[in-house]
Sequence to fold (254 residues):
Amino acid sequence: MKIKTAIKLVLLVIFIVFASYMSSLSATVPSPSININLGGAGSAPQVANSIKLLVILTVLALAPSILIMMTSFTRIIIVLAILRQGLGTQQMPPNQILIGIALFLTFFIMTPQIKAVYNNAYKPLQNNQITLQQAYDNAAKPLKAFMLKQTRQKDLALFLRVSKTKNPKNEQELSMGVVIPAFIISELKTAFEMGFMIYIPFLIIDMVVASILMSMGMMMLPPVMISLPFKLLLFVLADGWNLVVMSLFKSFNL
Fold:
């Protein structure tokens, strides 16, 4: 008990000394003051530059959604994920690798559209040659043309019917609110169709290995452990990555 009492007294003394030191330090060292001044824009160009900055920040905030929903990223990442599932390699390649591959393939496929948006929308807007609405229209044209090229007429008709919108004279008159969701479900269907074709050879190998193991009476041995090396060997010998990437490029009619 004496030891516990002595420890408590020592801790109390340390606390008192530390508190007195902090109080003396706060008394001698002045705390910094922070002032925030919001000045008004002095001219119209300053207001325009502020609006441009706000638009750029908004686009950066929505960039992940734009990348996923309005480009080829969705189809590519789904096909790669189904390929990994078919190989049965669990987390190999890791998600970071698959996303990186999908990103760079997306940039490669979308290069013409990116250049068109930069040259026809961003650059003239930066030079004050067009208005913000004109920049939006110029940026939407190449993206809309790309999405319409990949979208099924059935999906467009679905969203036109649901939104109770009259059929336009041509596809360019379609609003982005109709084109984007139609493009998304078309991409999902195409991705699953490609994934099904990729999955079939690996499924056949699993079935053959499972049948052989059952005929040998080795029912306790997981067939996946035996079939995995054969699937990897088949994929490597067939130059699988080259075939998958080439199939993705052809599916976009490049």
In short: Residues 89 and 218 are 22 Å apart (CA to CA).
